[in-house]
Each structure stands twice: as C-alpha cells, then as structure tokens.
Design a protein that fits this description.
Layout lengths: L52 E2 L8 H10 L2 E2 L1 H11 L11 H11 L5 H14 L3 H5 L3 H8 L6 H17 L7 H5 L6 H12 L8 H12 L10 H10 L4 H17 L18 H4 L19 H14 L4 E2 H5 L5 H13 L4 E2 L4 E3 L4
Antiparallel strand pairs: 1-2, 3-5, 4-5
Pfam families: HHH, HhH-GPD
Catalytic activity: Hydrolyzes free adenine bases from 7,8-dihydro-8-oxoguanine:adenine mismatched double-stranded DNA, leaving an apurinic site
EC number: 3.2.2.31
C-alpha cells in the first residue's frame, strides 16, 4: 500500500512523507485473482456503495479547471474501481483480518520505497517474532535493525521500534485508532497515520501514495505523472474524491492504490485492463507525454547508500561488536567508507565503542 523524496543517503526524514505502501508490481503480469466477492482489508467492511463522481471530459481544458469539473460531477469512479478491486486484489497478509492494526502499521513502514516481493518474507518473520508492539519494544533497537535485513532505508526500523515503544507506553500496547494519536507517535507522518486509520480501522481519510497520486493525475487531471512532491491541490482533490461514508472511503483508498500498483503503473500501463479507462482524462486526451520537471530516478551502485548497506551487513551478521578492520574490508575507498560509517553513527544505526569497535545500538 504505499510512495518519496529523501534528504539523506538513508531515506526520507519523515518516513511517511514519501509513501510507497503499494509498491508498484512489475509491469506486464496480470493481477493475482482472488475468489469472487469482497476482499478483506484489515478492519474494513466489505460492503461498498458507489460514491463521488468525476467527469471524463476535459481534453483541451486547463488541468485545474478540468479537475474542478471532474471532482464535481460526471461518471462514477468508485463503483468500477472497487468492483475491480473485489475481483483482482492481491491476497496480501496485511490485508487479512488477523493482521490487525499492528500488522498494517508494520507493512506501511516496510513498503515505503520497497516492492511487495521483497517485503513479504521480512514482514512474516517480523510478525512471527514481534506479534505485538510491546514485543518489539522489549528488544534493543539494534535487533530491529538486524531483522530489517536488506529492505533498505534502515532508519525505518529504528522509527518503527520507537513507535512500538510509544504505543506500549501511551496506549497499553494497542495501536491507537484515533488519527491525531497516530500522528503523535514518533516516526509517523500524515501518510502512515491516514493509511493505518483507513486500512486497519475503516476510517475516512485521503490516503495518498505514489500509486494513488498517479491514478488521480491520469484519470482526473489528464497528466501522465503527478508532481514530484505531493501538492496542496492533490490533497484537495483526494479529499473531494472520497466517498461520504467511512466503509466506502476505506475501500476506495485500498482499491485506488491497488489499481495504481497493478494496472496504472508508471511504465507500460495496462489501459485495456483498467476499469475506468473509458473515463480517464489522460487516455481520452491521447496520452500526452509528461511535460513537467524531470522525474527523479534512484541510483545505488557506488553511492553512499551502497556503502552503508555493506557496513550494516557486517554488523547484522555479527553476534557482538566488530572491529574497524572488519568494516574496512567492505569498501575500498577510505574517504567514502568513513563518511558512510559516520552517517550510520549519526543516524543512530551504529554505536561506536572504545578501541575502534562498533555494534548495532542497544538503546
């Protein structure tokens, strides 16, 4: 479910500012079908009513005017998207009722900038070891970093540990249902708070990840891609498109996210499989090419991120502290290696000890 800018080599300063909760599936393969009928999304009732409507017209109309027109009246979007979701949604563990709010929260942290295929095994191991927030809070933060493995952006592990500790201290070990209380947890931003409130508790919130933003950009505003960073106009549109009742709004949030992950993908979109292709403003306009700022790509090889990952791999595999010499073996360039290690220490991911020894953090 999930999407992202990052000011440092280890991910966004607000782990939820750049959601990626539904991490886009590789283009091409069809959605995994589930038995016909409603698909359980943790805590979200399956009964859905068609709601808000948008207009499909707008070719040649300025994007803002067309967006306002579509958000006000036209052809219903909710019913076809939710019906498609009922038939094609992936059977993911955090969507099952037994996942609960904690399972939803763990998945939302893990899915930021990380594909579902990589998250699945780590998620299952994590929930088996720490089925409740209190179980994680009782362990050292370094154990969360160790269990995070190679998901990337490991500060998310520290933030999830911090959230678990706060949930245990403030809420008796239960993930709060109140949106404001979720926002008050360490490491939780607007996206994650809305996602947990919606997916776990069936509440009415605009859940905007990269996949949802792309669906709305194409279907409503007629643009191939959304802006690089989420705008106030996107938030306003997302709120306008929400169904009025909570159950339908929560279902719509999950369905629109899945549509972006499986069909309305960033590349090689499958318009022939899209339930709202006939209403899509971008398609009706002839799929005009993106004319905004260049889309940011992410590189890995040779970056500080790669060096940090190699250093952390040594520390994760060790049963105790490791020497500076052991860390020096993982990267040939000393200046970059030292910079990466200093960054890990500054981020709280590595704890320096006396005599040039290092370990994962104990507190």
């Amino acid at each position: 479910m999930t999407a992202p800018t990052k000011p440092s080599n280890n991910g966004p300063s607000d782990p939820t500012a750049v959601p990626a909760s539904a991490a886009s599936a590789p283009p091409g393969p069809p959605a995994v079908s589930v038995p016909p009928g409603p698909v359980a999304v943790s805590g979200v009732p399956a009964t859905v009513a068609a709601g808000a409507t948008v207009s499909a017209s707008g070719a040649g109309v300025p994007a803002s005017a067309a967006s306002d027109e579509r958000a006000a009246s036209g052809v219903p979007l909710h019913a076809p998207v939710i019906d498609w979701f009922d038939e094609h949604a992936r059977d993911l563990p955090w969507r099952r009722p037994e996942a609960g709010a904690w399972g939803v929260m763990v998945s939302e942290f893990m899915l930021q900038q990380t594909p579902v295929s990589r998250v699945l095994p780590v998620y299952e191991q994590w929930l088996a070891r720490w089925p409740r927030p209190a179980d994680l809070a009782a362990e050292a933060p370094g154990e969360a970093v160790r269990a995070w493995g190679r998901l990337g952006y490991p500060r998310r592990a520290l933030r999830l540990h911090g959230a678990a500790a706060a949930i245990t201290e403030r809420h008796g070990g239960d993930v709060p249902a109140d949106h404001a209380q979720l926002l008050a947890l360490p490491g939780i931003g607007e996206y994650t708070a809305a996602a947990v409130a919606s997916f776990a508790y069936g509440q009415r919130h605009a859940v905007l990840d990269t996949n949802v933003r792309r669906v709305f950009a194409r279907a409503v505003t007629g643009a191939q891609y959304p802006p690089n960073a989420t705008t106030a106009a996107e938030r306003k549109l997302a709120r306008a498109l929400l169904p009025d009742d909570e159950a339908s709004a929560a279902r719509w949030a999950a369905a629109s996210m899945e549509l972006g992950a499986l069909v309305c993908t960033a590349k090689n979109e499958s318009c022939h499989r899209c339930p709202i292709a006939a209403q899509c403003a971008w398609r009706l306009a002839g799929k005009p090419a993106h004319d905004g700022p260049p889309r940011r790509g992410q590189t890995y090889a040779g970056t500080d991120r790669q060096v940090r990952g190699r250093l952390l791999a040594v520390l994760r595999e060790a049963h105790g502290a490791v020497t500076q010499a052991a860390l020096d073996h993982v990267w040939h360039e000393p200046v970059q290696r030292a910079r990466a290690l200093d960054g890990l220490v500054a981020d709280g991911l590595v704890e320096p000890l006396a005599d040039g020894m290092y370990r994962l953090p104990l507190s």
